[in-house]
Amino acid sequence: MSQHRLDRSAIAPELRRIERRLMLKGALSLGGLSMLSGCALDDEPSVERALSAMSRFTDRMQALLFSRQRLAREFDASRITHPFPYNAYYDESAIRTVDPAGWRLEVGGLVSDRRPWTLAQFRALPQKRQITRHICVEGWSAIGDWSGVPLSMFLQRVGADLRAKYVNFRCFDDYSTSIDMATALHPQTILALDYGDHALPPAYGAPMKVRIPTKLGYKNPKYLASIEVTNRFPGGYWEDQGYDWFGGS
Amino acid sequence: MLSSRRVRPRRTPSPVIRITHWIGALSMLAMIGSGWQIYNASPILPFEFPAWATLGGWLGSGIAWHFAAMWVLMAAGVVYMGYGVLSGHFRRDLRPVGPRAIGRDMAQALRCRLSHAAGHYNAVQRLLYTGVLIVALLTVASGLSIWKPVQLGWLTWLFGGYDVARRIHVAMMTLIVAFLFIHIALALLVPSTLFGMVFGRHPSAAPEASVQKGAAR
Asked: Whose CA is closest to A210, among A105, A60, A53?
C-alpha cells in the first residue's frame, strides 16, 4: 500500500504535465474554428507567456486589494444551502477516506516544531464557527457552516515564520494548493473539523479541510495531509494548469 | 471666420477617441468570448454558448483571457472617459437631446433617411452611445462585484448580493451584444462613419479639410 502511494506521488508531476498538454490541445481544436481565433493562439507559446504574465499581474493586484481586516459576510443558519454540494476534481465514488485515529497532519518548512499533529490536539484548541458563502471558480456558490481552529493560531503554536511568503497544503487525495501568508493569518481562515454540528463527512473533506471564505473553492483544500510554510512558490493542482494563483474573493 | 466655422462640422473623431475605441472594441470582444467560456462552466440560464464562439478552450484559459482583457479594457476606458469629460466630447457630442428630437431622428432612421453629417452626432446615435457607455460601466462594476464579493463587498451589496450581481453581469453583456449588432449594422450602412473611426477623416472631406486648415492658418 505504501509502495503504491509512493509511486503515485512520484509520477504526479508528469501526469499533470500530460493533462495540461491535453487541455491545451483541447483549446486548439475547439478554438480552431472560432472567429475569435485567439482560442487557437493559446497554444502559441508567446500568447501563453503573455497570458500568464497578465495572470501574475492580476495576482499582484489581488494581493493589493486584500485586507486582513475585511471579513467575509456571515449568514444566518436559515440561509445554509441544503444539501451543500460535493465538488472535487474526481467523482464522488472515488473519495478516499482515512481512519481518524491514525490520521496525522504533517508540519514542515519554516516552523520551529515539526512534530505531526493528531485530531485530538486540534480538538483541544478553541474552535471558531462560520456560516459563509463558498464561491466556486465556475461561478456557482453555496452557503455552508464550518467550524475549526484558526490557521493563525495553529501557525503560532508550531512557531511558524510569519514573515514567510506562502503556506502550502498537500492532501491525501493528491490535491494541493497554496496561499499567501496574509490570507493564512486572516481571522476567518480556519482548519475546519466540523460541518454543521458533526465531524466533517468524507464528501466534505474528512477529517480536515481548510476553509478560507476570502478565497475561491479551489483554494479551500479538503482531505488535508500536510502544511508547509515556505518562501518558495508552491503552486497547486489547478494553479499549475492555469487558474490564477491568488484566487481571492 | 467663415472657413473656420465650416471646419467644425467636418470634425472627425480625435486620435484619442479612435485609439481607445479600437482597443476597447478588441478587449470587449475578448471579454465577451471568454465570458461565454466562463458562463458555460456553470450556466444560469437553460442554454450554453457554442464552443466555437468562446475564447480560451477551457475554463482556466477563459479566466486568464477575461482578466487580461479586463485590464486593457479598464485602461482604455479610463483614458476614453477622462478624455470624453475633459475635452467636452461627451457634453458636446454624446449628451442625449430631448425626446422630440429622438422621435424625429428615430423615424428618419427607420426610413433610412437620417443624415450623417461628418462630426455630427444625431439624436439616435447620442442615445445609443450614452446608453452603451452606461451599460459598459454597469458591466464592469457588476463584474468587479462578483470577482471580489469580499474585498468589494459594498459593491456586491449594491448589486443585490452575489447571485443577483452575477445575473446582472450576464444581462448587461446581453445588452452590449445587442448594441454591437445594431452598431456594426449601422456602421456598414453608412461606411463613411467607419472610415472616420479608422482614419480620422472622411474620404470626401479629406482634400477640402486640408485646404481649409491651410486657409485658417
From this structure: A105
Of A50, A66, A238, the CB nearest to B151: A66
A-B CB pairs within 8 A amount to 121
Residue B91, classified by CB atoms within 10 Å of its CB into exposed (0-12), middle (13-18) or buried (19+), is exposed
State which amino acid sits at residue B157: W
Q: Which domains does chain B have, with CATH numbers?
A: 13-200 (1.20.950.20)
Contacts of B63 in chain A (CB under 8 A): 137, 242-244
Residue A192, phi then psi, degrees to nearest 5 = -80, 135
Tell me, letter by letter, the H, E, C secondary structure of A187-234.
CCCEEEEEECCEECCHHHCCCCEEECCCECHHHCCCCEEEEEEECCCC
Domains of chain A are 70-241 (3.90.420.10)
CA distance B9 to B119: 6
Task: Tell me the angle at which helices B123-147 and B162-189 cross, rounded to the nearest 10 degrees.
Answer: 150
Burial of B46 (0-12, 13-18, 19+ CB in 10 A): exposed
Q: Do A28 and B61 make contact, defined as CB atoms within 8 angstroms?
A: no
CA distance, residue B160 to nearest chain A CA (Å) = 14
- Cα A113 from Cα A200, distance rounded (Å): 27
ipTM of the complex: 0.83
**Tens digit of each residue's pLDDT (9 = 90 or more) over B89-136:** 888 888 888 888 888 888 887 777 777 766 678 888 888 999 999 999
Whether residues A248 and B33 touch (CB distance < 8 A) is answered with no
Which of A39, A133, A211 is the best mutation test for B, with the most CBs of B within 10 A? A39
Q: Which H or E element spans position A106? A: strand A106-109
